[in-house]
Prior knowledge:
The chain has 745 residues and is mainly beta. The protein contains seven helices and 46 strands. Strands 3-2-4-9-6-7 form a six-stranded antiparallel β-sheet, with no helix packed on it. Strands 25-24-23-22-21-28 form a six-stranded parallel β-sheet, covered by helices on one side. Helix 1 (304-317) packs parallel to helix 2 and helix 3 runs parallel beside helix 4. The longest helix has 20 residues, at 479-498. The chain is globular. It starts with a strand and ends with a strand.
Amino acid sequence: MSRTMIPINHDWKYSPEFKEAFILNTFDDNHFEAIMLPHMNQEIPYNYFDEKMYQFISCYRKHFNLDSTHKGKRIFVDFEGVMTYAKVYLNGHYLGEHKGGYTPFSFELTEQIIYDGDNTLTVMVDSTERDDIPPFGHVIDYLTYGGIYREVNLRVVDDIFIENVFAKPKDILQLEKQLQAEVFISNLSEKEQIYTVQLEIANGDEILGTIEKDITLKNKKETFILSIKNLKDIKLWDINEPNLYQVSVHLILNGQKTDTYSFKTGFRMAEFTPNGFLLNGRKLKLRGLNRHQSFPYVGYAMPKRAQVKDADILKDELHLNMVRTSHYPQSKHFLNRCDEIGLLVFEELPGWQHIGDKSWQQIACQNVIEMIQRDFNHPSIVLWGVRINESEDNHDFYTDTNRIAHEMDETRQTGGVRFINDSELLEDVYTVNDFAYGEKGETRVLRPQQEVTGLKQNVPYLNTEYNGHMYPTKRFDQEERLNEHALRHSNVLSHSALDPHKCGAIGWCAFDYNTHYQFGSGDRICYHGVMDMFRIPKFAAYAYSSQVAPEVDLILEPVTIYSRGERAIAGIAPLTIFTNCDSIQLYDDQKLLGEYYPSYENYAGLEYPPIIIEKLVGTWGMDWNDLKIVGLIKGQEVITKNYIKNPIFTQLSVEVDDFELNAGEMDVTRIVIKAVDQIGHMIPFIDEIVTVDIEGPAKLIGSSTFPLIGGCRGVWIKTTGEQGMIKLVIRSSRVDSVVVEVVVK
């Protein structure tokens, strides 16, 4: 029998305290709160809260029954992520501990399992900011929240089983390719065994290649190399065609498969060079944003659908080709989706500026090991981050992290994000945060690399942060600030594109995020994103989304709410319009004011520069009329945007990401609520209170009554494990209610 994976995310018991008595099987936990995983130990307000409110020690208990058909097998429990320190017990027996909140860990349960009876898994979770565990030891500019915030599974295998597989596509640019697999096998039987190990690659139901090898397993853990050669008609994994293939490794004894380890991977070649980044031999300018994996109210504790949606937003709405997982390994669901949609990833170990003592550094090195072991089969990941973000040089420590990464994975380069000049380059790629743009007296947007590196020669070079704290901007800020914020992002994208010795630039950041009181705007939010925490775009988002061919996504986004007195002096000029049209026409009350073209002279590096109308043609006087903006391609009208002179709050617009959810595990979807005028434009200065009533097998995340923020707000609902129809009624005092239904199957 092959391995069995049993999700155990339903029906946990939770207490916001921990006592030694909780470990015992005889302890009565009926007064504990019933919860599902993923779970945050304490939901938090949207802003202005004390971040200490989730920094405590809590207890999670799970009762489960394992039937006797599994006797003779090895039973493991696999935790995807627990923040920050965990001690695990089964039926009163101590199993072990794990330090670090961002990487997976496992414990064997075999000796303590009671078959056909009640088993109690108890987890002590310490969510305090412990000085001995990265990223802690000093203040950090983000929150880490608490709890068992990722999924947990039971894994049932034979005494001899596959621990892991690292698939390494070879001969990428040749007509005939090769798949080499490093197979890690554990033999816990304490005796020598002869097995056949089989490597197989498939495209759907079609087997493309297979190879077998007889092996003698002597030690507890051994590694074997298998290669399938002469693979034909393999399509490369690329950002526009992310072709994936199923890889399976089987352990076979006496003709029977005793274990199977399967996953998907892709054939691609990624190389950072002194003259730019190459994907499959083709030069590609990297354009990306940093992502924190946090969400309002529940921090990191969001299930698969929310993680997948974030990847889709970055690729399909913002049209990025890269994301950096600042500043830690992120959800496997997010990375799987990056594989599926062709979004490149720079993944790094946990940390922010601070380097601790030797034992702290040992845990950081272990984090590198766990990160690479979990994620080395993702074709989307093209760079390992092996340096604590924005830390000072530390020769011995970073020699170790680089050595570990190269020994474990010779197929990828390493980077290490710094913000100091003349930093020692131990990694393969000089990755650096460049915040020159906006510094006092600094006129350059990005500095030349040799000035930063202090080296005489060019090296592989990637900008990993820009803007961010240099110009924090709220979605509800005044229009001129929103415009400047957006153009700063366009400026960096253009300058990066024009420099052949920069592989690209990754902006800070995609989404606003909660942070400590020492940072942000004092309300526990850093407003550095091009989208807010609900993933609702600011105007700066369109600096990115407009950089796509119009046949993929037609963009016409003027940076204005169209109001006479919102800007200084009055009027809407200079008017920035993010678009991938050839030109736009502007109409005042049906009168053509002029035709306007992209600003190639100011944004020469952009394929689709913004159109900037410095001075509007025509006599406006004291009249204020309706406005129409028409986008043209090859002289033909392809898109139109209208604005009215007298906006009035007319209705609530409600957009639902998903109308069908799954009952099997916790599932979520986002609902975006907007106050709009007569023609559907969001009106940003309304302070309307909205109430969301919910019926059916789901709960709201956060409060059910809240004010709109800049005329708009998102809310997530999460399923409770049952099937049925969810009914949501969204109400406000001035307009009709909106009813939404979502089915849970």
